[in-house]
Amino acid sequence: MDLQIVTRGDHKVIEGRPGTQLLRSPDDIVDVIGTYFEHRSNSLLLYAENLTDRFFDLSSGDAGAILQKLRNYHIRIAIVASPDAVKQSTMFGEMVLEESKGGDFRIFDDSDSAEMWLTGE
Mean pLDDT score of the chain, rounded to an integer? Predict the structure, then answer.
């Protein structure tokens, strides 16, 4: 799995490599979760291209399945996805607004902002 471990102070962030697809199906998130626990990480940072091809189409069920598995293990996730680069379904955008009320999932335009949110800086 093409992941890297980034340490910022007391925080270990598991980060996907930009430009690579990690998840071909929602079930592939299990390998990411394994890496998360292996390295005793605090959070997960993925890029849009790391996700399944249909992640941003809420009707596919991919986002729901992946986010539920992460939620089951109390894993915080930030996704870097520029609105111009990713086509999101209307329902996906509504889900993101609802999820932003909690502290487990956010979408950011850049990795610096995502990392700051994950590490609490």
Answer: 91
100 vs 54: CA distance, rounded Å: 21
* Sequence-ordered list of residues with C-beta below 8 angstroms from that of 72, at least 6 positions apart, any chain: none
pLDDT band, residue 64 (cuts 50/70/90):
very high
**Cβ(116)–Cβ(81) under 8 Å?**
no
| Whether 18 contacts 49, CB under 8 Å | yes
**Token pair recorded at residue 44:** 């997960």
pLDDT of residue 101: 84
SS3 of residue 20 by DSSP:
coil
What one-character DSSP code corresponds to residue 44? E
